[in-house]
Amino acid sequence: MSILKNFTSLEDVSDPVALVDQVIKCKSELQNREFAKGLSFVMLFFNPSLRTRLSSQRAAQLIGMDSMVLDVGSGWPLEFELGQVMDLDKSEHIKEAAQVISQYADIIGIRSFPSLKDRNLDYSEPVLNAFLEYAGKPIVNLESGTGHPLQGLADMTTIREFRKTEKPRILLTWAPHPRALPQSVPNSFAEWTLSQGYELTIAHPEGYELNPQFTEGANVVYNPEKAYEGIDFVYAKNWSSYADYGKISNSDPRWMVDQQKMLITNQAYFMHCLPVRRNVIVRDEVIDSKQSLVIKQANNRTFAALAVLKNIISHMNT
Ligand code: CP
Q1: What spacing in Å lies between the alpha carbon of 84 and ligand 1's midpoint?
Q2: Global pTM?
Q3: Residue 213 clears pLDDT 80, i.e. is over it
Q4: Whose CA is nearest to atom 4 of ligand 1?
Q5: Binning pLDDT at 50, 70 and 90, where does residue 318 land?
Q6: Which of 6, 141, 145, 272 shows the smallest number of beta carbons within 10 Å?
Q7: Could you tell me the CATH number of the domain that includes residue 177?
Q8: Choice from 140, 181, 274 to test ligand 1 binding pocket (greatest atom count within 8 A of CB)
Q9: In this structure, are 267 and 139 located in the same domain?
Q10: Quick check: CB of 143 below 6 Å from ligand 1?
Q11: Which residue range(s) make up the domain with 172?
């Protein structure tokens, strides 16, 4: 049993296997709309979202919790440094902002993508940590500079539902993309997969190694085809370089997931967190096949958020 005080990363979860059990249980039970009546979930989106936003609101709705969403984009000039003379463009300090939001919220959710310019800054999670320090309310990570734990939890739920063995073989493969993307989803997918005791191979071009903090125990290969042999689940994702931080050095279409590669697998399922660029990351023939789980993953986002909210609320006054 995991007792959640916050849900900012896998580190907040003492038993990741039990938390997947809780998601599956949430999916099968009728929810009590009185469970969180009178409580409010405030979500701040510094970046756009379809799945995270709607699934989190839906989860709150299922237990009678009010949700409020603030799209702050880049138009909210927040100061994070202490001791600053705020005579330039930053009009509000995070110290007040977080405390003010906490007057209206019982739980606060935050989406804040990394800059992809300053690795040390991004990996220090300044936005999440400032809210943890000043808000005094449980914090849920809706995708941050280093991780997307709600996505990781939903993906582990999907794998649990479709696995044919206790220890499936899973491939996380890099695939090309025209824009530089964060490492958050692959970081979370890798660490959550390993937390379940599954066998993980990560395939990517040289120079795209993820932060080893998230991948210890995974097998890394640099070949776009060989990695598919005997695999049960193929998870595709693009990410920008961690070593040459935020840069793109490869756009080789041989890394795209296609039917030819899927035929090498053990009749693998295809997974992606979405949104996905068709025929750049994955060919239509794969994402449209019966082996594709992408919509089921999106559905499980609601139940992952539901399990997290219920768990936090159950332990809020303990
Ligand atoms: N997968 C995911 O987090 O999707 P959104 O960016 O639409 O929330």
Answers
A1: 34
A2: 0.97
A3: yes
A4: 51
A5: confident
A6: 6
A7: 3.40.50.1370
A8: 274
A9: no
A10: yes
A11: 150-297
Q: What is the pLDDT of residues 75-133, one digit of tens each?
A: 788 999 999 999 999 999 999 999 999 999 999 999 999 999 999 999 999 999 999 99
CB 152 within 8 A of CB 188: yes
Whether the Cβ atoms of residue 126 and residue 163 lie closer than 8 Å to each other = no
Look at the alpha carbons of 159, 162, 167, 173 in this order and tell me if their dihedral is positive or negative: negative
Ligand 1 neighbourhood includes 155 CB (under 6 angstroms): no
Do both 223 and 89 map to the same domain? no
Q: Distance from the CA of 240 to the center of ligand 1, in angstroms?
A: 17
Q: Is 49 in the pocket of ligand 1 (CB under 6 A)?
A: yes
Whether residue 4 is contained in a domain is answered as no
Mean pLDDT of 155-181: 98
Q: Same domain, yes or no, for 87 and 165? A: no
Cβ-in-10-Å burial (0-12, 13-18, 19+) of 76 comes to middle
> Token digits for 170?
């899973």
| Distance of alpha carbon 22 from alpha carbon 31, whole angstroms | 13
* Helical axes 149-162 vs 16-28, angle rounded to 10°: 70
Do 157 and 46 belong together in one domain? no
Q: Is 56 in the pocket of ligand 1 (CB under 6 A)?
A: no
CB 9 within 8 A of CB 149: yes
- What confidence tens digit (pLDDT) does each residue in 46-81 have? 999 999 999 999 999 999 999 999 999 867 889 999
156 with 72, same domain?
no
